[in-house]
Amino acid sequence: MAYCRLCLTLVLWSEKWPCIEAYRLLFIFAANFNVGPPASSIHDDSMKKRIIIAARDNWENYFARLFPVALDSGDAQVLGVSHRGISLLKMVKASGINPKHLRLLKGYSFAEVLSLELQGASRVELELKTENLVLRSSRAPQISAMIRLFLQELIKGSGHVVALKSFMTDDRSLLSFSKGDVIRLLPMDGLQGGWLFGTVGGRSGLFPEELTQPSAAPDYHYLHLDRRDDKRKSMRSNTRNAPPASPSQHPVALRQMSPESEPSRSNSVQGFLQRSGPSSIQGSVHELGVTSPMAEFAMKYFRTGASGLPASGRTLIQHTDIPIQESLILFDDPEMNELSVQCFLNLMMFMGDVPLKKNTSTADCLSHILLLGKEKELLRDEIFCQVIKQNTNNPTQSSFTLGWRLLVLITGFFPCSGTLHPYITQHFDDITQDFEHPFKDLAAVCQDNLSRSVRFGGRRNIPSHVEMDALLAGKTSRRITIMFPGNVEFPAKIRSFTITLDVIKDLCNEMGVSQLEEMREFYILAKRLQDGLVRPLHPEEYLFDFLLEDGSITLSFRRILWGTPLSFQNELFLDFHYQQLLEDYLSGQLKLGPSNGGASLVREVAELAALQHLARGATEPPTLSEVKEYLPSQDGLSSKLEEICSSCHVHVSAMESLSPQDAKIRLIEGLSSLPLFGSTSFLVQKVNQRGCPSPCIVSVNQQGVSFRHPKSQEQVFHIPLAKVESMRTIRPKKQGKAPVAEISYGDPARPKTVTLPFKQAKEFCHTLALIMEMTQSTA
Length: 779
Prior knowledge:
About 35% of the residues lie in helices and about 20% in strands.
C-alpha cells in the first residue's frame, strides 16, 4: 500500500510540476531501481520495501505528519514530525514553475527534546537543549501525542540519557557535561545506586543519575547536517570553506550546577568543535599531533574517536588491509552499520585490497557503492570517509589509483553533508597544494565535482554499463554531436559531470556570445527518436543523464528567448540564427501577417524567396522548382507559384549586389517583424477557453502565453507570465489520444484553468517552466 501511494505521488509530481526536482525524484526509481513508477510494474516485495526505505531516508518530509503552527518569532508555518525528528517548515514557491513546496527552516533530533508540555488546547511548549519552542496550533493535542509516541519508542533500549542540568567537576573519575548533552551509557561492574557510567564528546566517567533522563540516541546527521538549501546558498558565495577551528579546552574548576553556567550553543561545525573539549584520557587534538582536517573529523565523529577510547586521528583515517566490522562514523541505526560494513567490503574488492567474490566483477562493486550513495543520503559521509581512509598511506599503486578514480566519481555523483564539507574541502585543498602528491590533479577534479554536486545535486542515476567500463579504464569524457539549425552537426566534448550550461557556454563562445545574460537565452533540447518527444534541458541538468548508448536520444541547440539585440559580428552566429528562423518560417511556425487581396502577401513571399536564393550565393534567377522550395507551409501559396516566381526574379535583380551574408541579415530582419517572432508556437486543435478558435495557435514567450487565430494571427486571449500559477501534463486515458497540458492562472486562492490537448504538451510545459524560471531569476 505504501509503495502504491509513493508511485502515485511521483507520477502526479512529474506531471504537475515539470521541474528538475520532480524528475530527479522520478528518475531515482526509473533508473536506479530499473523499474517504472506504476505499482503494477513490480511484484517483488523486497524491491518495494527497498524503494520505500529509500524514500524514507532521502525525502525527510514525505513520511512526516504535518501540522499548522505559528511561533512567537520566526516565519515557520508548518511543523513536521517523523522518524527523523521535528522540523520547522515554511510553504514557499519554486523558482519559475511556481508549485508550492515545503522548505526546511530548522530541524531538531528527538535527542534534543528535554521536555514536552501541552498547555491548553492550542499551545505546546518544547524544551530543547538549545532553546525553548512555543507552538500555537489548533492541533496542539495531536502534536503533543505524536511527539510523545515517537519519544516513547525511541527511548526504549536506546542506551542514552540527556542532561537536565550542567555538571562540571575537576575529578577525573567523574564525567563533566552541560545541560542538553546526550550521554552514551557504558557498562560498568559495581555501580552504586544513583550513579551511571557513560561517555560524551570523547570523555567518559561516572555521573549522578538524577541529573539526567532517558533519551533517544543522537543522530549524527540530524544534529550536525547543514540542510541542502542553506548549503547550496553558501556554495554560491563561498566555493571553499575555511577548515574547522581546533577544539578549545573545558574549564576544569568545580562549578555549581545551575542554568546560568550553561555554555552557549551553535549548530555549526565550528561551534560544535568549540564546545566539545578533550577527554581526560585522550588529551587535545593538537597534543596528538593531528594536523589533517580528515583526521580531525575522525576524532570528532568516528566510532572509535567518539567512544571515549584512546585513539589517534591519523590511525583512524589511514589504509587498512582488514575489513571493518562496524561503520567508521558513529551510527546508532543497526541497518546503517550493516550497510557501512558491506560498502567497505565492496570498496576493498573494487580497489583490489581483497579478492573479488565469485560471480562479482569490479563494475558490480562500483555500482553497489554508487547506488548505495544514491539511495541512502545518510550514508554518504560514511562512503566519502571510507574511500579517503583507503587512499591514505596506501602502499599499493594499483589500489591507490583505483581509489582516487572512485573518489572522483563519488564526488560527482552525490554531495557530502554540511558537516563533512569543510573538512573534505580542506583535505582536497591541501593535496592540490602538495606538488609531490601523485594525485594532486585528481584532487582538483574532486574539488570541482564536489562543488557541482553540492550545488546541482549530483548525477541522478548510476552509469550505464558502457559508461562504467569507460570510467574504470580512466576515460571520463566522450565526444557527442549537437545538431544546429539547418541539420548542421556540431561536435562537443563532455565529461561525466558536465552540466547543460557548460555546453551552452562552449557553443555560445564559438558564436562570439560572451555575456551570460545572452547565453541564458539558448537551450539544448533532447529528442527521443521513438516517439518524437522533445524536452528542453534545464541548464543545471547533467547531460550524461540523458544520453543513451543506443543513440535513441539526440541533442539540438536552439535559441528560445530573444531579449538581447542581435549582433552579426560572428559568421557562425549569423548562420545559426538564419537557419533557425528559416526553419521556423518554412515549417509555418513563423507565419506571415494577413494581407489585402493577397497582393502584398505575394510581394512579401517573393522578397523572402529572393533573399534565400541570394543567401545561397546564387547569381542566376531561381527556377520554378527552386522558388517552390523557398515557400513556407502556408495555405493559398501553391496556387500563386508562377506569380511569386515572377516577382522573385524582379527582387533578385534589384538586390543582386547583396552578399550572401547581407542577404541572410536582411531575411532575419524581415522575419523579426512577424507577430510570432520570439515565441515558441504550437498548433492546438482545441482549447477549452471561450473565444478561442479551433484550431488555435498557442505561443509562449517572456510576456506570457498567447492564443491566436490561425489565419489572421489576431490575439484572442492572453495569460501574462506573472499570472501563471502552475502547469502540468495529464496522460491520455485512452491509447492513441494526445496528452493534455493544463495551465492554472489568476488568483492563487481560486485559480482558473485552461486545458490544451496536443502531442507536444510536455515540450510546451517544459518550455513555459524554463521561460518562467529565467524571467524570475533575471528580475
